[in-house]
Amino acid sequence: xxxxxxxxxxxxxxxxxxxxxxxxxxxxxxxxxxxxxxxxxxxxxxxxxxxxxxxxxxxxxxxxxxxxxxxxxxxxxxxxxxxxxxxxxxxxxxxxxxxxxxxxxxxxxxxxxxxxxxxxxxxxxxxxxxxxxxxxxxxxxxxxxxxxxxxxxxxxxxxxxxxxxxxxxxxxxxxxxxxxxxxxxxxxxxxxxxxxxxxxxxxxxxxxxxxxxxxxxxxxxxxxxxxxxxxxxxxxxxxxxxxxxxxxxxxxxxxxxxxxxxxxxxxxxxxxx
Length: 273
Known about the structure:
Helices cover 14% and strands 2% of the residues. By secondary structure, the protein is largely without helices or strands. It has a two-stranded parallel sheet with strand order 1-2.
């Protein structure tokens, strides 16, 4: 595992390598800790209070069925939520609103229908190793990320029907100590997703499926939309100034007459309409 992570670090930018290093350090701590059972986790959550939310940072929760658990405000930074085989932690339907998931290992974990509103996901490890497939990715179908802060590589992930309303996923130009860190949704399936009002400035959405997605009033400034499928999507009020539309599919896209900066988007003439 360590060799695979080090190889990744050599091939990544400094900011991405730093995030991966922090995540690997957290995983190393988790690997040395005693495993928790699902019952033990549920007991910890039951005893938690709003003042003292569940403290599960760095814990190994892989393979556990934690579906429906109320993790509201929990500290899951660096937690191990994946498995070494094609079985991950089951977090479907959980309440993770306001939870801390920074640097958590989430490969293959099932977050379908989970409430992640207002959560923080800075640098979670979605893929590890060089030979990865979509089967290694976590599942976030119909999850709620409204108002969440997400800086992650969520490429080739199932995000169908997910809610990202007002989520903060773009570059924070006022805070750049480690370079431009942003969301990577390249190749992901966001069909029917709600991204209204989301900040995706400078985000990577190349070849993403955004069929029938709601991108109204989204900030897509300088975003990479090359090859993205925006068929039937709603772009009313969205700002696409300097966004790359090379090969983007705009067939049946709604609200183009109310899209901001469309005349300033790059490669608009190469978009498919």
